[in-house]
Amino acid sequence: MKEVARWLIIYGLGLISLGTIGYLSNPRKAKTALYTGGGFGVITICLGVLTRRGAAWALPTALLLVTLFSILLLWRSVVVWKAVAAGERRKAFVGSLLALMLLFSAFLLPYLFQAWR
User: Fold this and answer.
1) Structural domain total, the chain
2) 106-109: long-range contacts, CB 8 A cutoff, minimum separation 24
3) pLDDT tens digit at each of 117 positions of the chain
4) Dihedral angle computed from the Cα positions of residues 86, 92, 95 and 97, in that order, rounded to the nearest 10 degrees
5) Domain range holding 75?
6) Among 3, 21, 44, 92, which residue's CB has the most CB atoms within a 10 Å radius?
């Protein structure tokens, strides 16, 4: 479980970092990047710490939250990349950050599922 806990903490730190980068790229309009990346990052770090301490409910909760966050990221990525394809090139940076978060989630989800089973 310590391995899973470590990956949850790393994932949370990555979300916080990417959310902060998104916010710093456009502080007036990108507050949601900070809220979602930072919020889910902090929650995931807390779940990683609880998993390390042996809380039986923390791993299934992390699996559920990462799954829901992945669905949110997929939806937002599709919306942003459609806008980029329609000519709003300035949204490409945001799309890249969302895609990177989704990629991190896609790598973490099977690992969480296997650890939970």
Assistant:
1) 1
2) 106/70, 108/7, 108/8, 108/11, 108/66, 109/63, 109/66, 109/67, 109/70
3) 789 999 999 999 999 999 999 899 888 887 888 888 899 999 999 999 999 999 999 999 999 999 999 999 999 999 999 999 999 998 899 899 999 999 999 999 999 999 988
4) 180
5) 2-116
6) 44
End-to-end CA distance of the chain: 12
Other Cβ atoms closer than 10 A to 32: 13
Residue 32's closest CA among 98, 109, 85, 106? 98
Q: What is the pTM assigned to this prediction?
A: 0.92
Place of tokens 């989630």: 105
Q: What is the largest CA-CA distance in the chain?
A: 49
